[in-house]
Amino acid sequence: MPTVLRVGPYRFFFYSGDRDEPKHIHVERENNLAKFWIDPVRLQKSIGFSRPEIIRIMSIIEEHSQQITEAWHEYFGH
């Protein structure tokens, strides 16, 4: 599970088995976990995050979308 980014309490990462799905990123903080599609950024599922926190995380993903996309291609290929 390569970590792509850490911002505040959030860790953004991929699972190695994610190759066959559209580009997405997983986010965790403590026992909370969420999955976001990258292009466009939208929530796929969330366990434990509040709505304001989801909005904050989406903003972080949008701000770092190029870095996340590059990491996806580097890890999984095009």
Relevant terms:
globular, 2 helices, five-stranded antiparallel sheet, single chain, 32% helix, 35% strand, alpha+beta, 78 residues
Helix run count: 2
The assigned structural class equals alpha+beta
Poorly predicted tracts of residues = none
Strand order of the largest sheet: 1-2-3-4-5
Largest sheet: 5 strands, antiparallel
Strand content: 25-35%
**Distance separating the two termini:** 18 Å
Q: Report the helical percentage.
A: 25-40%
Instruction: Give the number of DSSP strands.
Output: 5
The arrangement of helices and strands along the chain is: EEEEEHH
Explain what the structure shows.
This protein has 78 residues and is of the alpha+beta class. It has one domain. The chain has helices spanning 51-63, 65-76; strands at residues 3-7, 10-13, 24-29, 32-37, 42-47. It has a five-stranded antiparallel beta sheet with strand order 1-2-3-4-5, with helices on one face. The two termini are 18 Å apart. The model has no long low-confidence stretch (mean pLDDT 94).
